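Q: What would this chain look like folded?
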Amino acid sequence: MEKLFLDILIIKKTVLDQFVKNPYLLIGRPAIKPRVVIGAMIIKHKKSLSDEATIEEIGENRYLQYFIGNEEFSHERAFDPSLFVTLRKRIGEQEFNEMSQAFIDKVEAIERPQKRKSSKTKSEETQVED
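A: My prediction, written as structure tokens:
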């Protein structure tokens, strides 16, 4: 009985420690991970979709869900499309667009070297065949 009581105290202390570190842990909605929002912004830009269409597209496509960080396919929405509006209002339309463009530029910079390597390989193959 004493061991059970000690185990309960340890569990309570662990939970209390977590609550003290983050007092809002048990209050309100859970936060949306930045990877999800940034990934959705990239998808929105690359596919030229509206806010609603972006969330719908992510909900239907397992590869896009993996891109935003989901481990498994889910029929649930990643987040409400109004989050895009909220972000634009909080940081301003221009800053939101600049931030989005910075993410897109980074992604495209990563994609470019891969495309160059594949195109060089094809031209090298044709030279070897001639």
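The chain has one domain: 16-129.
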